[in-house]
Amino acid sequence: MSLLNAQAISGSGNSKNKSKGTPIQSAFSALAWVSPHLAGRLAHFIWYRTQHRSVTADEQRVLDQASVEVRKYGTKSVRVYRWGEGAPVLLTHGWNGDAGQMTLLAEALVEQGFQVTAFDAPGHGRSSGNSTDILEISGFITQLLHESGEDTAVIAHSFGGMCALHALANGVRASAVVCISPPKDVTTLLQQFSTLLGLNEVVVGQLRRRLEQRFGEEMWARFSMLEWVQAAGIPGLIIHDSRDRYIPVSNGRAVHAAWADSELQITRGLGHMRILQNAEVIGSIKRFLVNPDQ
Question: In this predicted model, what pLDDT tens digit does every residue of 282-293 receive, in sequence order?
Fold first, then answer.
């Protein structure tokens, strides 16, 4: 789901654009006036599109220390990274992210005595492709968790949390899950996406119908973190920032409320991305993984 892709395209972080609309919003408005059908088709195309970011020098240093495997998954090549020895932990990045964003956390967990696996999801990082969806990413997570076993803990950021919980809801097991900045359901993602692109109700309806053709009309109830965590039966830690502009903190609160065996940590001033590099957040995750039932 290309929420962050829409953010990048729309330039909605620019306060000067907010009052008069961004270029992409103006373009969609004009296209919708000419042909709502074409506007809906374009929105559907953007929904799946991904962007490959460049890793920083510090991220690359940690990635260079990993054991790297390139796997074929469907029609795509997926890059998997592994560090250390010990109890297994799987790191899952968010939309338009990659394993590089998780390297500070990977280093800390390896020092703590964990074996850490991360991957560039299909269409992300150094994996092949320029599009993907929740089914493809969660399918790959399922494969990795089957291999590492039920004692694997999962740490997932943003949309990666939805993908990981979707995998768990469909039969694979994990020992504990940390969700950082999770969206609560696909309806929330559609609302955010539509706002960022400035889609009117007619175009949103076109997009909804196209999504339902691919995933089924029941997708709005089926793709819900609130449903999945109720049946998870494992300990959870939700960490969310009060000033997250991409996924509002109300999403993290809702996931926590639905997840009986979970704890919630609210940070302040870290936003959606810097939360992954924060020492206090990393410390909380290490503590939770050492004793998730406490």
Answer: 999 999 999 877
The reply to whether 220 falls in a domain is no
Asked if 211 contacts 222 with a C-beta cutoff of 8 angstroms, the reply is no
Distance of alpha carbon 125 from alpha carbon 51, whole angstroms? 8
State the greatest distance between any 2 C-alpha atoms of the chain, in Å, as a whole number: 59
- Give 67's DSSP letter: E
pLDDT (mean) for 84-113: 97
Q: Are residues 28 and 69 in the same domain?
A: no
CA atoms within a 13 Å half-sphere pointing along the CA-CB vector of 275: 31
Range of the structural domain that residue 131 is part of:
58-187+225-290
How many other CB atoms sit within 10 Å of the CB of residue 206? 23
In the prediction, which pLDDT does 17 show?
44
Which amino acid would we find at residue 110? V
Query: Whole-angstrom distance between the N-terminal and C-terminal Cα of the chain?
Result: 34
